[in-house]
Amino acid sequence: MAHQVIGINGQFPGPPLNVTTNWNVVVNVRNALDEPLLLTWNGVQQRKTAWQDGVLGTNCAIPAGWNWTYAFQVKDQVGSFFYFPSTPLHRAAGGYGGITINNRDVIPIPFGFPDGDITLFIGDWYNRGHKELRRALDGGTLLGAPDGVLINGLGPYQYNTSLVPPGIVYERINVEPGKTYRFRVHNVGVSTSLNFRIQKHNLLLVETEGSYTSQQNYTNLDIHVGQSYSFLVTMDQNASTDYYVVASARFVGAAVVDKLTGVAILHYSNSQGPASGPLPDPPNDQYDTSFSINQARSIRWNVTAGGARPNPQGSFHYGDITVTDVYLLQSRLPELIDGKLCSTLNEISYIAPSTPLVLAQLFNVPGVYKLDFPNHPMNRLPKVDTSIINGTYKGFMEIIFQNNATSVQSYHLDGYAFFVVGMDYGLWTENSRGIYNKWDGVARSTIQVFPGAWTAVLVFLDNAGIWNLRVQNLDTWYLGQEVYINVVNPEDNSSTLPDNAIFCGALSSLQKEQSHRFVYSEASPVAPWRNMVSFLFLLASFTTWLQ
Questions:
Q1: What is the pLDDT of residues 9-62, one digit of tens each?
Q2: In degrees rounded to 5, what are phi and psi of residue 292?
Q3: What is the Rg, in whole angstroms, of the alpha carbon atoms belonging to the chain?
Q4: Are 252 and 282 in contact (CB under 8 A)?
Q5: Which residues pair with 397 in a beta bridge?
Q6: Tens digits of per-residue pLDDT, 343-379?
């Protein structure tokens, strides 16, 4: 079936950004879509450059027919990340690609250097386009079950003739026997948690979202929306056949689970035949979240490994730092506010102002936002507002996500990695701190929160800026389940915008006409930096055959 997707340079998924820590990255984005666009860099911390973050609170969207150049440093980070369009529901149509930040040669990695590097994008897919999905939500209708699961933008291999029609193009991963490959797997879907597994192969987890993990073997792993993991996989089978690579939906109804199974093929160079037999088993109980929550608790920080710097990751003793601010963020099922379907945190559904928060702050535009977001649920009627969190620079914030809805939610914080210290069922109380992991909770930027449960994180607010804290599930994000954290360094008022800033809202008059309309040359659009790498991205819709 033919579908419209958002591609980059004619590719779906888009081209990779393969860089080394501390490099300066320049990405010139040409928007050939018919509506405004922003790209965000999921997990890249944008140290002191919040205006490059690419969300509606930090940037004016790039109008259709314009280009804009992002320029940022991947400062003191290594690992597996991805970029995607942050403008409403665009990721449901594509526009995403991988970001690999490599260690400097002088910094060893805590495992043998792999023989190859493979990036996989897994995600649920709706046959309806992103505009139709928006119209459904605007009309008060939830999206319902997706229509399939894609692996690298392709449909499932025909593992079962009664379930999968013939002629579907699928992903084939070519490998050599005896070699070890690093698989970087990203869930870029709309709202569905996926279980990832490879037939007859172990997954040795080594890294997630920039943190090296304690190395553990898994036969399968639940990967929630917006999360990234990397595994070492050794080609240690006899290659009597090819092998299935599977991403299947978790916590969905029996009527749709079969169609929500993405299947690719792992092909040894000496394979003797096609993959056969049943798919590798998923977790036993499709609806039971206890397997998944225990699996999540098993993922620990490798405290002895160096990261982007030679000092061990565990040299930052987060468990010894005094917490300065506590925010309990409660979500619940979408509800009507003034006749419009909304999602909330602490009874507030965020609405993006026409003037981005960063611009409003730098130019002292009054009335754009309020620094009055409550630090706990207020048990009041929900409302729509632009209320943000007033963070303390170099404070240590404890954030508890309380999920009172009925599905798994993933939360992401731009600008930082937070320490995952606890998750459990029920309502969080101060006594819940008794089970916190104060030593080797993994540092990452996206964490799952199970329905009827809570997850607690700790974050050191040392990166000045205004940073987006959002649910990664695209439907509830669109409905307002997000907030921003304002972090101001009182000793540094030197924040400036880049020369190519786009102005909108109350500052539209500052925009120079024609300054961004598809102007691009091989000459760098920014002053050259040391260790600079440049990319050109042309984002456009095109038709491709999926499932």
A1: 999 999 999 999 999 999 999 999 999 999 999 999 999 899 999 999 999 999
A2: -70, -40
A3: 22
A4: no
A5: 325, 459
A6: 999 999 999 999 999 999 999 999 999 999 999 999 9
The span from the CA of 186 to the CA of 444, in Å, is 14
Report pLDDT digits (tens) over 56-115: 999 999 999 999 999 999 999 999 999 999 999 999 999 999 999 999 988 889 999 999
3-state helix/strand/coil string of 218-236: ECCEEECCCCEEEEEEECC
Q: CA-CA distance, 518 to 157, in Å (whole number)?
A: 40
Q: Is the peptide bond before 13 cis (omega within 30 degrees of 0)?
A: yes
Give the integer Cα–Cα distance in Å for 169 and 74: 35
b/e per residue 498-532 (b: at least 16 CB within 10 A): eeebbbbebbeeeeeeeebeeeeeeeebbeeeeeb
Type and span of the H or E element at 459: strand 453-460
Residues counted in the chain: 547
CA distance linking residue 494 with residue 131, whole number of Å: 40
End-to-end Cα distance, the chain: 5
Distance CA 508, CA 188 (A): 33
Alpha-carbon separation of residue 159 from 145, 155, 265, 275, 475 (angstroms): 22, 12, 10, 8, 31
Tell the residue number behind the tokens 């914030």, with chain if given. Answer: 397
Strand partners, 232: 182, 204
Quick one: DSSP state of residue 92? G
Query: Which residues contact residue 122 at a Cβ distance below 8 angstroms, ignoring those fewer than 6 apart?
Result: 149, 150, 151, 185, 186, 187, 188, 189, 194, 196, 223, 247, 262
Give the Cα-Cα-Cα angle 87, 400, 377 (nearest 5 degrees). 85
pTM over 0.85: yes
Tell me if residue 483 falls in helix, strand or coil: strand
DSSP letters for 304-368: TSB-SSSSBGGGS-GGGSPP-EEEEEEE---EEETTEEE--BTTEEE---SS-HHHHHHTT-TTS
Torsion of CA 428, 431, 434, 436, to 10 degrees: 20
> Do 117 and 182 contact (CB within 8 A), yes or no?
yes
Residues 223 and 226: their CA atoms lie apart, in Å, by: 8
What is the distance of C-alpha 321 from the center of its chain? 27
